[in-house]
Design goal:
The protein is an alpha+beta fold. The chain contains 10 helices and 8 strands. The strands form 3 sheets. A 3-stranded antiparallel β-sheet has the order 1-6-7, with no helix packed on it. Strands 2-8-5 form a 3-stranded mixed β-sheet, with no helix packed on it. A hairpin with a 2-residue loop joins β3 and β4. The longest helix is centred in the first third of the chain and has 22 residues. The radius of gyration is 27 Å and the shape is extended.
């Protein structure tokens, strides 16, 4: 396990090197000692947590995916830049006939959706067998309610409970959200490829090789690595050599 930790730490240090080197005029071969020490601590704690999770025999942990360009869903996500998002909202509150509602400001059609730009941390959900304490309480409450029913109805319910379909509270799977995904938002408009991926319309376009609308829809967008390469061409080149050179 120590070898695996060292390997991951080295890989991450090479990935972070171009970002650490932004603005520097001299090449940096390795991360400074403090940065490598902190990185090693983070990797060690992550490895121990991963090992602990895998050893849990009665729990299944699942990381539901959260995608860039996905529309914000408060039930599954937490907004890291909530104050700025609210402050920059293209919607205005209006009062009509004594009722409050929101209205999109004119000229803001391309900023009408809160879009995920950065996924800072994924969502985590735990699954366990059975209904747990909640199922036990529900069965107990049902038993108390049955005692107030007429004798013939109680007898019928008793026969049903004692049959092959008797509930014990161990049926099914219960879930708990350990944490929501943490995202950084930006007001914008979902691209067609994001909104329609996997739908019948998208699959038909793939089948018929008619994807022109998707290409046009992402024409004015740039990925982070493209912006970085334009701003720091030397750093980007050095970073690629360090990442992919066989000597490293």
């Amino acid at each position: 396990m120590l070898k695996a930790k060292a390997k991951v730490t080295l890989q991450l240090s090479r990935l972070l090197l171009p970002l650490w080197n932004v603005g520097s005029t001299a090449p940096i071969v390795i991360l400074p000692h403090l940065a490598r020490s902190l990185l090693g601590t983070i990797v060690n704690q992550a490895a121990e947590l991963s090992r602990f999770i895998r050893l849990q025999g009665d729990v299944i942990y699942y990381w539901p995916p959260t995608f860039k360009d996905e529309e914000f869903d408060p039930e599954r996500m937490e907004c890291l830049n909530l104050s700025a998002t609210v402050r920059e909202s293209p919607y205005q509150k209006k009062i009509t006939n004594g009722r409050e509602h929101v209205k999109l400001q004119p000229g803001s059609e391309d900023r009408r959706e809160a879009i995920v730009r950065i996924v800072c941390f994924p969502e985590l959900v735990a699954y366990r067998q059975g209904g747990g304490d909640l199922a036990a309480r529900m069965l107990e409450e049902e038993k108390l309610e049955t005692d107030d029913l007429p004798p013939d109805v109680r007898a019928q319910k008793r026969r049903k409970k004692e049959g092959p379909f008797r509930l014990t509270g161990e049926e099914g799977i219960r879930t708990r959200t350990i944490c929501k995904s943490v995202v950084h938002l930006q007001w914008g408009k979902q691209r067609l490829l994001t909104r329609e991926a996997g739908t019948a319309a998208h699959l038909d376009a793939k089948r018929d090789r008619d994807e022109a609308k998707y290409t046009e829809d992402r024409r004015n967008f740039k990925e982070l690595h493209q912006i970085y390469q334009q701003a720091f061409p030397w750093g980007a080149t050095a970073g690629r050599k360090l990442l992919f050179s066989p000597r490293h």
